[in-house]
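User: Hi! Is it possible to get a structure for several chains at once, not just one? Here's what I have:
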Amino acid sequence: MSTYTSYYSRNKDKVKAKNGTYYENNKEKYQEYYSKNAEEKKAAQTEYRNTHIEEIAEAAKLYCKTEKGQRRNKTSSWKFKGITHTFESYNDLYDHYLTAKQCEEANCNMTLIDNSFTVNKRVLNYNYKTKEYRGIVCHTCNLKLNKIDRENEA
Ligand SMILES: [Zn+2]
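Assistant: Yes, the chains can be modeled jointly so their relative placement is included. Here is the combined structure:
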């Protein structure tokens, strides 16, 4: 055990009380330091962003293509749209979205495929009006369900 540690463990309360009092007495100084520091940090970040526009855009483009980036894109878009669901989290909903192998619409067993512009493209379907999640469906069922929503609204 180092000298400091043993001193500290023997005088824990005393040290804590002293530090606490010191902080209390110098609170404004601390707060001023942190807020000044925060301003400088923010200014430096802004400066960096303004001078590295292309690099940042390029990095963002690459990030979007990663698994993590795609997850983040999808889940934040669902959150933004206000889609409600009964999963633990948007991440869990995304896990389900990724692993759904067949269209979940009744009487449709279409095998789902990622990133295709075909009839069996994987789509998260929800009610546009109530924002309620309905299921992971194929492109065809998605169009069909959305058409029903529009007709119901009219
Ligand atoms: Zn379907």
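The first strand starts at residue 122 and ends at 126. The chain has a mean pLDDT of 90.

User: Great, thank you!
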